[in-house]
Structures are given as structure tokens and as C-alpha cells.
Write a structure and sequence with these properties.
- The protein is an alpha/beta fold.
- It folds into 2 domains: about 20-55 and about 335-415, Alpha-Beta Complex (Aspartate Aminotransferase, domain 1); about 75-320, Aspartate Aminotransferase, domain 2, CATH 3.40.640.10.
- The protein has helices at about 25-35, 60-70, 85-95, 100-105, 115-130, 145-155, 175-180, 205-215, 235-240, 240-250, 285-300, 310-320, 320-350, 360, 375-385, 405-415; strands spanning about 40, 105-115, 135-140, 160, 165, 170, 190, 220-225, 255-260, 270-275, 365-370, 385, 395.
- Strands 2-10-9-8-7-3-4 form a 7-stranded mixed beta sheet, sandwiched between helices.
- Strand 5 and strand 6 (about 170) form a beta hairpin.
- The longest helix has about 30 residues, at about 320-350.
- The radius of gyration is 23 Å and the shape is globular.
- The termini are far apart.
- It holds the Pfam family Aminotran_1_2.
- Its EC number is 2.6.1.1.
- One of its GO terms (cellular component) is cytosol.
- Its cofactor is pyridoxal 5'-phosphate.
Length: about 425
């Protein structure tokens, strides 16, 4: 006996309740179990081609062949920070090759387990070195559900700022600005760099400038999540406007970057976390210190990142010819999604579906916040075999020439009958 009483706190597996199932993964399982030959998957956040199949980018096939033909390749560990040539290329992609922050060595970068790992690594850093009581982390309402989970998991208190107006299905600029103006100094503001998930609604360039002005005046810290660079508009520099503008304005910035969507490397889990120090005499010292702490956090979590996906991305990013081909692939994906938005809107207009559907074409990127209610979504699933998030979000990439008219008829039906 060690003298401990029965009341001593202890780990008790029997007291652990079952966690709720992830709704999107449950949706995937339900779709796969459906035997209807008319079923439509609009839930998965992954690009699908015209045949509703995963698309391996031609440039990714070429990069893979280069790796496979390399007789010197091995499977040794790479550095804790990741593949150096990948990290430097990822920096340039998000910040711009002529970025003053890169030239002044104010950026440290770590390869991560896709965008989720990047958000988590950044959140761990902030949780470890944020004084208590912690400042709030403000996340858009709505947002990617994992944002709330990650910051809550590391113990940072989460609040929300308005982002989407349900009545107009547009960006709630005034609502967001009101919260930013009243947020406590030092608060962390999570921002979607482009193609906001789940709404598909982005601020304009001028609105981004106003957001930056208020955040600078109120000493708020920007944490950008960039999962869709080049995938949203089809143009890499256009999709990184907000990140580059904030850096130009002298902000210290955290950036989570993913290559799942824009390179189609979903299962390879290729991402990066960047910390950009503000300009100043101590900038490089700050950057070095941050890098040293990220090394400890990374070492304790994954030791070192996986190599294969990072090699694919690195080859594409660093080879001018392949990079040019990649830009064409991005236009192919973004262009097909824009086409499907247009087709869906035209079908709904042709059917005289009640309501206005301009938001379908005004939104951007993979997702559209349709405005459909949970009961309408359930009816779509049960009667029409259409699978989508309960929030009314659809992955537009799941539409194609063969199912877009069917989906429009389904929407028309439930809008007329179900509240």
C-alpha cells in the first residue's frame, strides 16, 4: 500500500464517455452504404472530376515519376522542421518570392501534417507561451469545425465573430468589424485566407484592408488558415492577397498552409506552418527563438514529418516548367467548379425554384452555403439520395454534367415542400 486514499484523483478509463461521431465522416459512411445508382455525394471536401472520381493532377504524376526514377532515394528521417527545399518553396508561394519578410529572414517554417497539423502546431505554440488568463481566440461563425476543436484542445478560450448573413447569404462585414473593435487587446483572430469554409464568401481586397486597419489599431494577432491557395480563383497570387497585405503592413503573422486541395495530395498530408515576425532590430532573434520552440513541439508530436508527399510538392514548386503546368491544373479545377456553380444556378432558375440563388455563383471556392435547412437536407438524403452537410453546405466539386440537373430538381422539390 502506498497510503493513497480511495479519493485520490486518478485516471479512470471507465469514466470516459463516448465522444460524438464526426458528422462528415458519418456522412461518408452513409453515402457508401447507400445502394442507389442515383446517389450524389456533396459532402466530401475533395475535388472530383467530371466522372465524380478523384483526380490525380498530371503534374503530380510527373513529379511522382521523377521520385520513382531517382536511384539515390531512400526512406531516412528528414529534419524535424521538414524538407528544407519544400519549406522554402512553401514560404515563397504564400508570401511571394519578393517578400521583404523572407529577405529580412523574419520567417520560420515547419513542414506539418497538412493544414490541420499546421493549425495545431501554431495553437500549441500560442498555448505554451500565452500568459494566463489567456486572451481569446476569435473564430468566424460559421467556420471549419476543426478550428474550434484544435484551440479548445490546447486550452485556449474560444469566442466567435459574425461572418455570414443568412438573410442575404453574404459576408457580414459590419458584424465582424464590431467584434474586432471590441475584442481584448492581444486576442488571436483566426482568418481564412481565401475560399472561406464553409460559406464560400470572402472579403473584398478593400474590406481586407479595413480589417487589417482595425486589427492593427487594437493590437490583435492574425492567424491565417490557407487551405485553398490557387484553388479558389485559379490564381496563386490573387488567393494570397490577404496574407501578403498583412505582412506588408508589419504584422506578426501565423500561417497554416495546406497542399491537400491545390495539389490533390489529400492522403499525403502535406502542409506547413509559418511564423512571420514583425520588422525590427530583434526580428531575426524572435524568429530564431520561435523556430527553436517549434522544434521541441514538433519533436514531441511527430518527431519528423513524412517525406514522400513533401518531395512531390517540392519538385512541383521548385521546377519552373512543372510549376507552370501546375498553374494550368489549378485553372482546370477552379474552372470546372465555377462552371458547376453556373449550371446549378441556371437549373434552379429554369425550374423557378422559390427564393433567390445568386449566392451560388457569387460564392467562391469548393463550398457553397446553400441556405437549405437541416430538415430539407434530411429530406434530400432520404428521398433523393443526396448527401451533404446538415448546415446546408455543399461541395460544388461533387457536381457534374450528369447530376447537376438531378440535384437541382431535388432542391426544387424540398424547397417547395419542406421548411
Amino acid at each position: 500500500m502506498n497510503g493513497a486514499s480511495d479519493s485520490t484523483p486518478r485516471f479512470n478509463p471507465k469514466g470516459i464517455p463516448a465522444a460524438p461521431k464526426d458528422p462528415l465522416y458519418s456522412l461518408v459512411s452513409a453515402y457508401e452504404a447507400d445502394e442507389s445508382d442515383q446517389k450524389v455525394d456533396l459532402g466530401v471536401g475533395a475535388y472530383r472530376d467530371e466522372n465524380a472520381q478523384p483526380w490525380i493532377l498530371p503534374v503530380v504524376r510527373k513529379a511522382t515519376e521523377i521520385i520513382n526514377q531517382d536511384t539515390k532515394q531512400n526512406h531516412e528521417y528528414i529534419p524535424i522542421a521538414g524538407l528544407p527545399e519544400f519549406n522554402s518553396a512553401a514560404q515563397s508561394l504564400i508570401l511571394g518570392v519578393d517578400s521583404i519578410a523572407i529577405k529580412e529572414k523574419r520567417v520560420c517554417s515547419f513542414q506539418t501534417i497538412s493544414g490541420t497539423g499546421a493549425v495545431h502546431l501554431g495553437a500549441l505554440l500560442m498555448a505554451k507561451f500565452t500568459p494566463r488568463p489567456s486572451p481569446f481566440v476569435f473564430i468566424s461563425s460559421p467556420s471549419w469545425p476543426i478550428h474550434d476543436q484544435v484551440f479548445d484542445t490546447v486550452g485556449l478560450p474560444v469566442r466567435h465573430y459574425p461572418y455570414f448573413r443568412k438573410d442575404t447569404k453574404t459576408f457580414d462585414f459590419d458584424g465582424m468589424m464590431d467584434v474586432l473593435k471590441s475584442a481584448p487587446k492581444g486576442s488571436i483572430i483566426v482568418l481564412h485566407a481565401c475560399a472561406h469554409n464553409p460559406t464560400g464568401v470572402d472579403p473584398t481586397d478593400d474590406e481586407w484592408k479595413e480589417i487589417a486597419k482595425v486589427m492593427q489599431a487594437n493590437e490583435l494577432f492574425p492567424f491565417f488558415d490557407c487551405a485553398y491557395q490557387g484553388f479558389a480563383t485559379g490564381y496563386l497570387s490573387q488567393d494570397s492577397f490577404a496574407v501578403r497585405y498583412f505582412v506588408q503592413q508589419g504584422f506578426q503573422v501565423a500561417i497554416a498552409q495546406s497542399f491537400a486541395k491545390n495539389l490533390g495530395l489529400y492522403g499525403q498530408r502535406v502542409g506547413a506552418f509559418h511564423f512571420v515576425a514583425g520588422p525590427g532590430a530583434d526580428a531575426q532573434s524572435i524568429t530564431d527563438n520561435i523556430a527553436s520552440q517549434l522544434s521541441i513541439l514538433q519533436r514531441s508530436e511527430i518527431s519528423s514529418p513524412p517525406i514522400f508527399g513533401a518531395k512531390i510538392a517540392s519538385i512541383v514548386l521548385n521546377d519552373p516548367q512543372l510549376f507552370s503546368e501546375w498553374e494550368k491544373d489549378l485553372l482546370t479545377m477552379s474552372g470546372r467548379i465555377k462552371k458547376m456553380r453556373k449550371c446549378l444556378k441556371e437549373e434552379l432558375d429554369r425550374l423557378h425554384t422559390p427564393g433567390t440563388w445568386d449566392h451560388i455563383v457569387n460564392q467562391i471556392g469548393m463550398f457553397s452555403f446553400t441556405g437549405l435547412t437541416p430538415s430539407q437536407v434530411l429530406e434530400l438524403r432520404e428521398k433523393w439520395h443526396v448527401y451533404m452537410a446538415e448546415t446546408g453546405r455543399i461541395s460544388v466539386a461533387g457536381l457534374n454534367d450528369r447530376n447537376v440537373a438531378y440535384f437541382a430538381r431535388a432542391v426544387d422539390d424540398v424547397v417547395r415542400r419542406v421548411l
